[in-house]
Amino acid sequence: AWPDQLAEGGRMVVPLRMRGLTRSVAFERDGDHLVSRDYRLCGFVPMQGAGAHTERRVALDGDEVGLQVGDGQQPVDANRIREALFGPRVQRWSGVVFDQVDELDLWLGTAVPVFGLLAAKDGPIDRGLVARSASRGAPTALSEGSFAYRTKRPIPNTSKFETGVYAHGAKAEVLAEEYVELIRTWDREHRHGPGARIAVYPAATPDADLPPGRVIDKKHTRIVISWTRRRAP
Q1: pLDDT tens, residue order, the chain (233 aa)
Q2: Residue 60: exposed, middle, or buried by beta-carbon count in 10 A (0-12, 13-18, 19+)?
Q3: Whole-prediction pTM value?
């Protein structure tokens, strides 16, 4: 009902959850839908009751390691993911400096076909089972019982870090390469760029009437997130 209540020329600021990532988004009306004017990282109390999110948490190591998968995505094979976690690990490094991670994470959340957040407590992190990045929820790509997530390592003789990927499972090699290429694409085409365009359409909007981008279906709306390449200097 909120878009119908928005006055002409008005602006609506909402905490919007998209594939497990929350951003405070300023929307303006554009015909029958809303378009983002700007957005910022934020946290907010999760919706309760009938409007609660349907995100799933897949336990991978008791309550010590878990994978949160956003609503509207295909089911995850929990047993295969769990087995993969305790199997060999593949590492790949991107050459991309680890900064602006909030924007990078939003890019990954829209670019990865099946996306989740890997979260872990201190115990498995200290044991080396998962990287320290999982303490805050590491953006994770999933594919056929394999998964890959973002991490970092120090760049020698500097105070900076390099962005990299850890991957597990039968498709770890392929998934890690794909993930690293997404990081490099963001660095090449979107770092310091205009950011994402977030549009919100009524739930009944046909696919043919939606613009190109990652479509996230919710109970009352269809969200479309797209990215424009930054202009050359």
Answers
A1: 888 889 888 999 999 999 989 999 999 999 889 999 999 999 887 777 766 666 788 899 999 999 998 766 667 888 999 999 999 999 999 999 999 899 999 999 999 999 999 999 999 999 999 999 999 999 999 998 999 999 999 999 999 999 999 999 999 999 999 999 999 999 999 999 999 999 999 999 999 999 999 999 988 899 999 999 987 66
A2: buried
A3: 0.91
